Amino acid sequence: MGVFDRLRGRRARGEGRAATLDRGAQRADLQHLEQFAGTRRGVEGYVEPRTAVTQTTIVLVAADGEWTRRRIAGPEVARRLSRDLGVPVYDAQVTGYPRRMRDHSAGRKPSGS
Prior knowledge:
Radius of gyration: 16 Å
Number of strands: 4
Number of helices: 5
Number of domains: 1
Low-confidence stretches: 2-16
Helix content: 25-40%
Structural class: alpha+beta
Shape: globular
Largest sheet: 4 strands, mixed
Strand content: 15-25%
């Protein structure tokens, strides 16, 4: 399958879903998410949908606004991971992202500190 076929969303031979230009989730991605959640407090998960360019991703946001994003094998895996880690999970398209994440990215101190 060529690059233009991927961009148009055509299905690759033998695959049940359209191909993306992104690599799939790997064990290292899960290990990073587990380490992040295990070493920060107040972590929440935000699932981002699969697109023509990227796989499904999950953003973990700590209480202080620090965040990380990694690929995940799908929304169901994100929910299972969040349950295993004991963190709430939200659909990023529905809830958006917390202000503390934007503040952290902009270099501002979180409110209430």
